[in-house]
Design brief:
Shape: globular
Structural class: alpha+beta
Low-confidence stretches: 411-415
Number of helices: 26
Helix content: 40-55%
Radius of gyration: 34 Å
Number of strands: 25
Length: 796
Amino acid sequence: MFKNYLKIAWRNLKTNRMFSIINILGLAIGLAITILLFLSITYERSYNSMYKNKENIYRVLVNTGESYDSKIYCTAPAALAPAIKNDMPEVKYAARILKHGFGETAFVKVNNTNFLEKELYWCDPELFEIFNIEFLKGNKASAINRPNTVTISESTAKKYFGDSNPMGKTILIDNEKQLEVTGVFKDFPENSTLHCNAVASFSSTFAAKNPSWGNSSFETYLQLDENVLPSNTESQLQSLLDKNVDKEGQWFTFSLQPLEKVHLYSTDYSNSYSKRVGDIDEINNLSFLAMLILLIACVNYMNLMTAKSEKRSKDVGINKTLGASFKSLIIRFYSETGLITLIALIIGLFISALAIPLFNNLTEQNLSVTLLFTPQILIGLLLFWTLTTLIAGSYPAFYLSSSSPKAALTSANKNGKGVVNIRKGLVVLQFAASVILIVGVIVIYKQLQFMQNQKLGFNSENVVAISTTAVQENNKKDALVQEFKSLSMVSDVAMAQGFPGVTVSGRMLFKNENDENGFQIRTNRADSEIINLLKLKLLAGKTLPLVKQEGDTLTEVILNKTALDYLGYTPEESIGKKVLIGGFRGNAYITGIVDDFNFESLHQPIGAYAFHNRRTESKNFALVRFKSNSLTGTMDQLGSVFSKVIPDSAFEYLFLDKNIEQLYAQERKTAMLGFIFSILAIFVACLGLFGLAAFTAEQRKKEIGIRKVLGATIIGITQMLSMDFLKLVMVALIIAFPIAFWLMSGWLQGFAYRIHISWYIFALSGVLAIAIALVTVSFQAVKAALSNPVKSLRTE
């Protein structure tokens, strides 16, 4: 019996070729997009799932209050892990992680060959136990117990030492520290938050000798014993804090973040070492987009089935008269739908497999075609097929099958209001979804354009930041600056701790000695040329002194306007005033005031910022402003000078404007994905509209013939056939606009500086939707209007 249903279904497909092609193509594209998005979502949710003890692993978070900056930090004090080991037996392991140079690139020398290493971490030995890292060489338990030891990944060992055995050999870090290789571990998976190329002994660092409760710069992971409640551990952490830090000094509290949430729920947290940070909001958006596109594709099928309901209802009436049961008709209609969706699924799988490389480029993921054939995905595809079949086949299976033989065969049923209303409702639903996508794409594009055109308060063009981390001698840095200045295409050079777009030191700014709360301020040690190099606007005073003598304990400070507003001074009256900044010991004085500038992304409001010349941090970047049009030639010259002055270090650099752009990479990715998938979704919607228009023209061909014989014009007939669809599109606009406004207003809340959703965005979206619908429908309408009335009337 089922075999007969499939034969009937296949015969119907061949009989109605155009409708079948539209149905299959629309569903295939919708399913291909849904499959790709489902792969992406599955991949993002798979992060850290490979670790054996994942249910008991937690990262310690530091929560600051309103007295500091009301943020959540992924790094904790260095003194925390040792205190946990001593006082909290329910914690099985505790390990600190310090990314080299607080995130800077390490300069590695192996056998007189220079390498750049961006993933060097200084860790406690317990890290290997917490994450059950597999060792290929060496003893995991003791590999980094001693100072000045390091373990490296399998690929890093290959890069540094080729095919030779790296065990017992040494590598030089930043021309300063010799480390002995004591182990080789398997490379971390791509979907791991932790991604170390080299893990060195934490006991080699400054923080191991003098662990502090005040410097919160160390990611700390814990593995709890089984059946230990994390809430109880959090309470114990607070008791540990009370034991070691006076209440006045407690500017933070601790909380625990489960490992399974580290990847997707850390977007708004600060100081995370990993660049592999996902976003649960993006996952939810992608899920919404996948369901929306799948819905549009399913609506296509249902629309075309309602359009053919007249012919199918007679078929149902005849079958019921001949004794067909309600159940058998449902099975028959679902067999046809299942066959169509199965063909569409196979084609969709093929399309998605071909599109994976392009999708990887857009999302910066590492999806593989083999993922399509994993049990999880195959089960998901089976659910896709089942869900699509159930949704898309619901109307013909239940509505048509439930009608009585008399109702199905009567001529009054052929234009029944129920069928027409269902079809109209589906068209409205489909185009409402399409309009929501159009509005979303326009809003995202306008926000990106706004951020790109926003005046940042400094000029990042033609500025390159060259890392000098490996240079230990100040005289070499001075020599490098002088050599750079001697180049004709160089206009300004300044050594600095950091630059806009890069995190620098965090301290507290106080109004006076009685100020108990203070205000968070970012401090950047820099040369006097920094103001001119960045083209900052000096509101009052002057830049930092050109030369600072050895033994000079006076600290000169340049504040931005936000910091000055907190202090309550005008720019002019602030010059020469003493300023209290944590760590500067009270002998800092204001020498200049600059206008506010965006030193972080536009997601964050402008905070307090200070340039200073106190010898508390290293100036590890040479900032160079150049005026040459030949970028390649400029970098070649700068590289030659660098190699001449500092021959024992690799030449690493980045451009400030490119670094600023990277702050908005996620938004550009979202915009591109939204644009591409919205175009495809609208295309799928237009396929359905095209099929409906063709069916309507076919249904009314005799009416069109009569009208032409009576003198109707082509324009008049086209207008008549198009207006019904355009009315439905207008209803879709009315429904879609409030929903789109609500959704995009929520998305824009993530930006401190954002556009307002203006009326013209909806006007543009509406015009686009109407134009798309009009072009789609008019093609069939004009074709029908141009047809020969004799052919349509010859049977009358």
